[in-house]
Amino acid sequence: MTAASHRTAPEHTHPDAVPVLTALAALADPVRLTLVRELASSPEWSRACGSFDVPVGKAALSHHFAVLRGAGLVEQRDQGPKRVNRLRRAEFDARFPGLLELVLRPDRCD
């Protein structure tokens, strides 16, 4: 068995179950915002966890992805030895119309 086969599948929260303050808190962190922005500009399921340009270690990155999953923003699945990600944009937009659009706009101030 490989190391990937010993991993448990991550739990995902559907955006319909997410309070607005949880969503805003998840998007308020600069590292998580970078993850969301990079996912938004990538094809679904094309980004492995280690492929993001963020200044944190593996444990912190795992925590940030857990927060994003808990806020209904990200879905993850194991693909061979890697865990790949997708932004749950359609589902999140249905729950919070316009929120991601505002966050992802290139002209917004950080």
Short description:
The protein is of the alpha+beta class. The protein is built from five helices and three strands.
If you had to describe this structure to a student in words, what would you say it looks like?
The protein is α+β, with helices and mostly antiparallel strands. The chain has one domain: Arc Repressor Mutant, subunit A, CATH 1.10.10. The longest helix is centred in the middle third of the chain and has 13 residues. The chain is globular. Pfam families: HTH_5. It comes from Streptomyces chattanoogensis. One of its GO terms (molecular function) is DNA-binding transcription factor activity. This is ArsR family transcriptional regulator.
- Count of alpha and pi helical runs: 5
| E-strand count | 3
Q: Radius of gyration from the CA trace?
A: 14 Å
- According to CATH, the fold-level topology is Arc Repressor Mutant, subunit A
- Tell me the span between the first and last alpha carbons: 45 Å
Structural class call reads: alpha+beta
Unreliable runs: 1-5
- Tell me the fraction of residues in β-strands, as a range: 5-15%
The structural domain count equals 1
Q: How do the SSEs run, as a string of H and E? A: HHEHEEHH
CATH class descriptor name: Mainly Alpha
Strand order of the largest sheet: 1-3-2
Shape: globular
Oligomerization status of the protein chains: single chain
Give the name of the CATH superfamily: Winged helix-like DNA-binding domain superfamily/Winged helix DNA-binding domain
> Which architecture would the CATH scheme give at its second level?
Orthogonal Bundle
Mean pLDDT, to the nearest integer, reads 91
